[in-house]
Amino acid sequence: MRFPPANMQLRRAQLVLMLAVLLPTIAMSIVGIILLAVGSTATTLIAGILVLTFCTSGITGYVLGSVFVGKGAALVRVQNDFVSSVSHELRTPLTSIRLLLESLRTGLLEDSDREQVLSLLARETDRLEALVDRVLELSRLQSSHHYARERCEVREVVDEAIAAFDAITLSKPTKIRQDLEPGLTVVCDRETLVRALANLLTNAWKYTGDDKRITIGARTAGRHIEITVTDNGIGIGKDEQRTIFEQFHRGKAASQSGAPGVGLGLAFVRAIVRGHKGKIDFTSRAGETTFRIRLKRRRRELPSPRAMTAGTSGQLQGARP
């Protein structure tokens, strides 16, 4: 198996760490055990204890070093996979643009064909621009630490997400069933949370048949508020469940159905949920898939901006003569 250069360096660092720390530490541990076993004087016993203590510290350092090196190797793999995926997705529109430009350069096209080529060229350019914008936006969401913090009514957030979903699915309107516990509020960035829920609803819509049954729910779950999106689609295969949130990952169902998209929808959802310090997971089988977003409940909730606006207006009106 071949590793990229940076990943290979991390593997070598892990091997050097093992040879320089772990093996000598194991040898010294054996010496310490022997000193404790056969030692007959206080000096020998103390020496054995000190040797074992030092060895314990060395093994702890090795374990921590291995963890950090392993995380570094995993990060390098993720970066390499991301670059590879982006390059693959960019290559398709760029190839189309190059071929279209070549056909225009020959000057052998009829006027009607030239108009068609220009139209295709504009479409591929828009596609390329949209892809770049989505990649940049995903990067911003993943690195941003400036999510707004306001108290939002969960029902209002869900209503806005359904409205955004309805605008996307005008070609085949679908009724979304709601199962919301009343009175739920959450501290969130309203705009990005609405987008995450709209993405989940759109995914559910894409991968269900003609008899679409999609439900969005919300309830209290201990110290969290849990928002769920459930559909009656074909489900996610077990071999794909570990990578479903990765950038540019498209499952077999997406490829076979020809559903539009580049595999960034769930990556957006995960980035937004992480930005809220929440968690997202899912369960899936044939005929039912449920995505769950868990957001922490706040003991001291921030005031709602709408309530603050209303309160300020009331104070101003009361202050008038």
How are the SSEs placed, and which strands pair?
Layout: H1 5-38, H2 42-106, H3 111-143, E1 150-153, H4 154-168, E2 176-180, E3 185-188, H5 190-206, E4 214-221, E5 224-231, H6 252-257, H7 265-275, E6 279-285, E7 288-296, H8 305-319
Parallel strand pairs: 2-4
Antiparallel strand pairs: 1-3, 4-5, 5-7, 6-7
Helix pairs in contact: 1-2, 2-3, 4-5, 5-7
Explained architecture:
The chain has 321 residues and is α+β, with helices and mostly antiparallel strands. The protein folds into two domains: 1-121; 150-296, Histidine kinase-like ATPase, C-terminal domain (Heat Shock Protein 90), CATH 3.30.565.10. It is 61% helix and 14% strand. The chain is built from eight helices and seven strands. The protein has a five-stranded mixed β-sheet with strand order 2-4-5-7-6, covered by helices on one side. Strands 1-3 form a two-stranded antiparallel ribbon. A hairpin with a 2-residue loop joins strand 4 (214-221) and strand 5 (224-231). Helix 1 (5-38) runs antiparallel to helix 2 and helix 5 (190-206) packs antiparallel against helix 7 (265-275). The chain is extended and about 100 Å long. The N and C termini lie far apart (82 Å). Mean pLDDT is 75; it is low at 300-304 and 306-321.
Please provide a brief summary of the model.
The protein is α+β, with helices and mostly antiparallel strands and 321 residues long.
